Amino acid sequence: MGVGIMAAPVLSVDVRDMLCAQALALTSQALERLQRGQAAEILYDAADVKRDLLVWARERGHSARAHRPGALRVAKR
């Protein structure tokens, strides 16, 4: 019998329909719950929220990238 490798679960954070400040606060709270190397998928629906989340994450040393349309993947560092 083979052994499979399972990816660590990813926390999903829905910031759709939120203003930038609200989205950043919710994302910050979510990342506080994660351990180093774990990731959160942030669901958004506004370009300004996406931009602010990317800048915010990178300024704090986290890796952040577009994951799929309407979603970012942020890994805690």
In short:
The chain is α+β, with helices and mostly antiparallel strands.
Question: What's the structural blueprint in terms of helices and strands?
Answer:
Layout: E1 11-14, H1 20-32, E2 39-43, H2 47-59, E3 63-68, E4 71-75
Helix pairs in contact: 1-2
Description:
- The chain is of the alpha+beta class.
- It has one domain (11-75): TusA-like domain (Translation Initiation Factor IF3).
- Helices cover 34% and strands 26% of the residues.
- The protein contains 2 helices and 4 strands, in the order βαβαββ.
- It has helices spanning 20-32, 47-59; strands at residues 11-14, 39-43, 63-68, 71-75.
- The protein has a 4-stranded mixed β-sheet, covered by helices on one side.
- Helix 1 crosses helix 2.
- It is globular, with a radius of gyration of 13 Å.
- The termini are far apart.
- 22% of the residues are buried.
Q: Helical percent range? A: 25-40%
The global form is: globular
CATH superfamily: TusA-like domain
The succession of helices and strands, N to C, reads: EHEHEE
**pLDDT < 50 stretches:** none
